[in-house]
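User: Structure with shikimate-3-phosphate, tokens only please.
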Amino acid sequence: MKQKNIILCGFMGSGKTTVGRRLAPLAKMQFIDLDDYIAEQQGKTVSAIFAEQGEEAFRRMETEAAKALSNRTGLVIAAGGGTLLRAENVRIFRKNGSIVLLDTPLSILQERLRNDTFRPLLQRPDRKQFIADLYRRRMPAYCMAADLIVEGGYPAEKVAAQILDRVRKG
Ligand code: S3P
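Assistant:
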């Protein structure tokens, strides 16, 4: 039987990559981080893509990557924080997978993202306020995209076990 993909959705720092790496072996599936996949395809980092080609170009690459990966099965995919904000990407991933939102409290996100130097959107002096505003704007769209909402902010293995349990129960 072909295994539906599991797509992890949520804000930057919500734990998509860390939890995905734990979840994949538990579920006997393959882990793919969407940012890493795009960076590999393009031969440059996400920061370089944003700087050289702009955010819109990166968003188009996300949709292309979503299409390519949705032709495969048995994947745990850590989406980027902006991926599931696009209705088109939600449709693409839904065809063949369950979208799971990691609902991680804003205070934990702020702590995790405080010293981040990799995420292009966060390299600004008003980072804390920017994160708070973006979080409030994005949360409703994440909730709309999600088939399942799981509490993040706990140790990754606990969150991964919770996801597997809930996905299996359908
Ligand atoms: C983004 C989140 C990043 C990455 C890019 C844009 C966003 O992924 O795709 O920097 O718009 O929230 P992570 O959520 O894995 O940090």
